[in-house]
Specification:
It contains 18 helices and 15 strands. By secondary structure, it is α/β, with parallel strands linked by helices. The chain folds into 3 domains: 203 residues, Rossmann fold; 133 residues, Rossmann fold (3-Layer(aba) Sandwich); 80 residues. The strands form 3 sheets. The protein has a 7-stranded parallel sheet with strand order 3-4-2-5-6-1-7, with helices on both faces. A 6-stranded parallel sheet has the order 8-13-12-9-11-10, sandwiched between helices.
Length: 475
Amino acid sequence: MTEPSEVLRRTFGYPTFRGSQEAIIRRTLQGQHSLVIMPTGSGKSLCYQIPAIMQNQESDPDGLPPLTLVLSPLIALMKDQVDALKSRQIDAAFINSSLTSEQRQQRYRDVSAGRYQLLYVTPERFRKPEFLDVIARRKVVLLAVDEAHCISEWGHDFRPDYTRVLEFRERLGHPTTIALTATATREVRADILRQLGLPDDTATFLEGIDRPNLALDVREVWGDDDKLKQIQSIRELYKDDSGSGIVYFTLIRTLERFSDQLRQLRVPHVCYHGDLERQQRRRIQNEFMRGDCPLVLATNAFGMGIDKQDIRYVIHAEIPGSMESWYQEIGRAGRDGLPADCVLLYDEADLTTQMEFIRWSNPDAEFYERVYDQLERNKEQVDAFGLEWLREKLHAKQIHDRRLESALAMLERHGAIEGTWEPMRLTVTGPLPSELSDADRLKEKLRRDQQKLLSLVQFIRHEGDRRDFLRAYFG
């Protein structure tokens, strides 16, 4: 039988495994479940890709090769991973909303015909009857749950459809399951196992959060001028380097203000945020990945699917919302193993912004009920007059309040509504989810988010070794 190390060398071009990779792969090949916590850039994907290649060599009773199904919330990352696998002659594909109807139907036919060693989908795909029909025709021998922290309501990027993964596993016949993430506290790890229906004694591979090549620094600043000086000084350190840098902002308007100032100083850069059109975002991302522009100013919309090896510095110009978000974002630096700087610019005034963000992202039960009621009773007016009309109906005097966007996003994630926001074409497709009408549950979610921000502030003010603080936080 082929050895995992042989597949690693022949297919992926690496001479040896790192850390626990080989142990995880051998366990997976033996049909045992695992929870894998590895720092960003440590090679988590190999832990399921190599078993997928090795297990694909045997056919099921119908003559079709077995399939590895990968659940991921990141559409951009799916394409990058599939492209990388196909470049190594591995038969892989993704099915998600970026495909046309014709492309999607062709992929379904290919799955039914026995194609693909690995198939990447979002959890939302399991809402589609045609997908359920197609996937039932294949024997799924391995289920890889990527970004597994999304399954936990107490994680930093909760996605309701992830909570249905136990149901998906049952539909698939309880295949061997491997859950992977870069960030998960003890509480989140326990929640992942519970939600997946895996035994409490499932092997957990905790690789730690240390990346010795990353220099972690917190610098206290006062106002935009001080921040701008710090950004320029860090950029100057690397101006003769071929590498790249990312400066993260919380607010788009702050990002644009700094962009104007950098243009006046003739500092070349690009800007990336969620308000840009999809094609424009893709073009900017490609420019950055090619190295055409070594500096990007971005909100946290940037980074999902970014696997650029030579990012030399990541600066947070505004405080992020949690330790998990900060750690995830600095994880894009120094993936080539060479030194990189991760600098958080701390202005105490920015705390107010994050506290507002937390409030906006945690509407209470009454607000959800009012939004749902408007969408259900006044669909014609909502479609005709749009988002701003609906906002005025809900909180006329608070024009900067973003609770509406949060509520719509969560209703959409829970499958209660479908459609587009701009133009506003929303249809109620299900009842108001019980999770969004449970006042006590929502209050507890708000409290936990506030605690996450407090933990980040404690990290900023920590006078000892910040790596010790990180180890204690992530356990």
